[in-house]
Amino acid sequence: MTEISQNFQRRKDFLCLTVEDEQAMRNLDDALGDQAYGFVEGFYRHLLSFPEMRALLPDDEALDRLKALEMRYFLRLTAGTYDEAYGDERQHVGLAHARIGLSPGWYLGAYSHYLTELLPRITRLPELTPEQRNDAIQALIKVVLLDIGLAIDSYITHRDTLIAELRDYGAAFAHLPHGTLVVTDELNVVFANQAFAQLAGQTPMALAKGDPLPVFMDVGSLPALVKQALQHQHARGRSQLHFHAQALAIPVSITVHSLQQPDGHAEPRLLITVEDLRKQEQLNRDLLNAQEVANIGTWLSYFDGKPSLTPQAARILGWPVGQPFKYADLLGCVHAEDRAYADAQWKKGLATGHTRSKCASRTAPAPAGWMRLARSSMT
Hints:
One of its GO terms (molecular function) is oxygen binding. The protein has 15 helices and ten strands.
């Protein structure tokens, strides 16, 4: 017998969980028949009547996964076989609930539902004799207490793992200037640095308890970026993040990287970097105002490769504001006689990083329609 098996057996011995108790549970299992499904459905109706619980289950898919897990859990509870494999499975279930952010208090409170639902049913089972009902009740209490001990072990294991990861992630990301998170694929927070905590109006430790991000913020497009990063290792986008502790949404640039995990690690990890764009957007507004006064426009190309005209540039070129714009469209706005020259100058700018040229727009003949084209590279 291995050391793990010996420890598990000692737990059973301490609870006086005997082979007779196991037989009593098998008798109970036979008498309950197919009542497991109704019991699990009732359990989750009770669970979801609390807003704290609903926040931990972001979609029906997550709920269905937990229901299936709970169904197996309940069927094993009364099956009458309580060996090392049973203990491993119980700890797996406990870890699953710890990872979605369910606190130990709520998880252990669920056992009250087990007992208050099952005990009255046992007393009414006609398939059992009064003595068998009494044996089943005593055996059930012992098994539930065994499960509670295993659940506590699961939460301790999860906590110790988080502490170890926090040390590693803290050394790597704690002092980065942008908000930085490490999350699971279900958006449970593993690590948050000070910069992100400030954005969220929280403390790093408050964020890094394993709670899901929806507890702190409206996640918006973040799940889609996470899915993309899991498929392609990397994803990037812009969004407005609304933290529950903040009055206004914050414009941000979000970058998501899939982190390589050691072999056998249970969950994927993702590194999320959040850049606060409020100052940048204010500078952009100031720039646009200055361009309008100086009658200067710019053509910008962001990280996604899509070029865009500033409103003043669109007005100068006679292009509808906000309409998609390509380099070919730029040449189309240049007078036909000047297009070859403008194209050559632009390509020169691509090679040298800077160019200036003067040509006529298509909307007016020179000199009234003169416009100056300039290209500068920014790193």
